[in-house]
Amino acid sequence: MNKNFLYYMIGQGSWFLSQGLQMVLFPTILVLMLNVSPAFYGLAQVSILAPSIFLIVLGGAIADRTDTRKLLGIIHLLATLPLFLILFGLNYSFLSFQIMILYGLTTGTAQAFALPARDSLLNKVANGNIQKTVITAMLIQFICQLSGVIAMGIVGICYMGNNLVALPYITTERYGLGSAGFAIVTSSFWAGTVFSNLVLIFNQQLKNWGKIMVFNLFFGTILIFLVFNIPFWLFCFLVFAWGSGAGVVISMSRTITQTFARETHRGRILSIYSLAIFSFGPLGALICGFIIENFGIANNVIISSLTAMTALSVLVLKTDIYKIKAPK
Hints:
Layout: H1 3-33, H2 38-65, H3 68-78, H4 81-91, H5 97-125, H6 138-174, H7 179-201, H8 209-219, H9 232-260, H10 266-295, H11 297-318
């Protein structure tokens, strides 16, 4: 295996290990320890995502102009500091909603600079495994990128909001579970993404990238079944299936962007791609929190699913996203 790629994956793994722990820690503190309402919980999730709206394009520009290895090392080091804030808050009994907002903002800021740097570095360590062909017809390139900004917007509003807000409250209110339940549900989602990416690894000759991505975007509407009071194991299985579809969408959309982006502008283009998610993700979290608090979890799931299905149908009918293919 390419040594540089191995080091890259170790760094990537350490980052997302901490992110996985955060996905359990954050709702545990806010929902179980501080007892915040769904609306305030949605606002707290926004604090993590919002910095990327303002900083991720800047992060992409910096990634194109600096040594991304050193940059990522500094970011990883600084990203540990917000955790000490929570540690001191717990030990000295001053942990509050405001402290969690500050934690979210600092963590989100680190993410805004880490993501484009990591994406930009990937092509340098992949040793030719990522196709570098640039489509000569600029029209096709713009169609691909524009269709992917729209698609990620749908994911952010309709799916990401439910992942961040609805799942923790379903786990707590419907099944009466705490941090252990959060961990199981979160693990189910990410196990699904790992599973689908393993499937993609063993099927690298797939050519119809657009059709695969569109199918899995529609597959995300499976969350409508969460409206039913199903057993917890079945709930986790649906979350696993949902995560499988998300894994394909994330991988395929990034593959398309990595492949068709110009090397000199790759960091900035990837940052704009990520901006779509991080822009609409906070909006989705706020909307989900508002709907859950005022109309209940079931109505939130129904509205999100129907909205996603309608928006995706328009996307397919009005763009050529499903025609995107792997370059020859």
